[in-house]
Amino acid sequence: MAAYLTHQQKVLRLYKRALRHLESWCIFRDKYRFYACMLRARFDEHQDEPDMVKATKLLKAGEEEFWSKQHPQPYIFPDSPGGTSYERYECYKVPEFYLDYWHPSEKAMYPDYFAKREQWKQLRLLSWDKEIKQLQEEVTENPKSEALPPARKEGEFPPLWWNIVTRPRERPT
Known about the structure:
Helices cover about 50% and strands about 0% of the residues. The protein contains 6 helices and no strands. Helix 1 runs parallel beside helix 3 (about 50-70). With about 170 residues, it is mainly alpha-helical. The chain is flat, with a radius of gyration of 24 Å.
């Protein structure tokens, strides 16, 4: 379950969506910049609204206006969900433990990486029990978000740090 969004986050997301759809409507850059400045002026007009009831009504009206004026076929970036090359390189992301099965001659080609990896593996073995214990203590049955708890002290590792350190590249080179 995702965390609740603040009013400011909702407004910023609406503004960004409106700009992206404006790009789809305006082919020429000068025309787009003109309308983008007009849109920004409309948002800045109510930027410091002290009344939250009025601000919420303005947000709702803005979302309804966006819904009615959105582009029927918006531009989607190729790497974004729904884009032509979304998750194109997922097939190249091999699980990290496959490196354990490399031949020593292959590992010899990358001595620095495999030396560091052995240190990471030792740290993982030492910190695993503490991480699991921390997760069991801090994560309830119905967490409000999927975020993992942070490290408790400086110099310690957060739970399941191993997945972050050893994640594959976004794009193979």
